[in-house]
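Practice problem. Given the sequence and the SMILES for zinc ion, write out the predicted structure.
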Amino acid sequence: MAWFKKTRQPIKADRASRMPEGLWVKCPGCSRVLYKKDLGGTLNVCPRCAHHFRIPATERLGTLLDHGRWTEHFAGLASTDPLQFVDTKPYRDRLAAARQATGLEDAVIIATGRLDGTDVVMAAMEYGFIGGSMGIVVGEKLTRAAELALEQRHPFIVVSCSGGARMMEGALSLMQMAKVSAALARLDRAGVPFISILTDPTTGGVTASFAMLGDLNIAEPRALIGFAGPRVIEQTIRQKLPEGFQRSEFLLERGMLDLIVDRREMKSTLALALRFMGAGAARRPAGNPAAPPPLPH
Ligand SMILES: [Zn+2]
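Answer key:
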C-alpha cells in the first residue's frame, strides 16, 4: 500500500520561528494567533510571551541605526564557488537561489551609521542566505568591517544569526574564523569597542570565533547559542543534556554571556554600553566628567 499513501515532507525545525507569509502568524511561544501588522510595532516580538521572531538583516539595521538609515559597504563581494561544490544540488545554484530570495550577494550586510548619535560600524547576518552561514565572503566582509572600524576608530557591532561555517566552502570557510578573530584582536589592541549580539540561532564556527569575542556579548532571550547541536553532544558524551541547554538564559547563568536584552530595549542598551565604554563620550557636554549610569542586569 506504500504507493497509495501520501508522503509528507517533514516540517523543518527552523520553520517555526521564521516569519511566514500572510496576514496572520501563530506564535511558536504561546500559540496565540497574531496579526502580522501588529508585530511590526513590537519589532517582531510577541506582545504576550515575548517570543522573538527571526528578522531579516535589513530590518535589524533599521531598528538599531538612527532614522533607519545607513551606508552599506563591500556589497559587491560574491562567492566564486572555489571548490565547485555539489551536494544534493550545486552550490552555484544554492547561491543563485539565495541571491534571488534575499536580494543580497552573501549572508552579511556591513553598514556604517549612527546609533543614538554615535558613529558605528555594524554588521548584520542574514539567516535567509544559506542559513546565515560564514563562507569566504562573510569572513572577508567582517574582516574589512573590523578594519574600517579600526581606521575610523568607531565601535564595531556584529549581530549574528548563523548556522556556522559554510560547508560548501570547506576548509576555506573554517579559515575565516581565524581571519576575523585576528582582525578583532587588532581592534582590541587599539582599544576600539566591539560588541557582539547573538540572536537565534548563533551556532558552529560563528559561536566558536567572533560571536563570543565581544567586549560585551549580548544575546536576545531564548536564542539558541552553541557550537555542535545537542544530539551530536549527547552521542559523544553519552549523557542526557539538561533542560534549556544552549539557550541564552542557560549560558548567561554559566558566565558565557554578559547580558540578555529584549529586542525592544536593544538599541537603548547599546547606546548606554557605548557611552559606558567611552565611545559615546563625544556627545557629552564638555566639562561634564560625570560617569555614565551603570549597565542594567
Ligand atoms: Zn507568543
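Check your answer against the key. Residues 281-290 have pLDDT under 50 and may be disordered.
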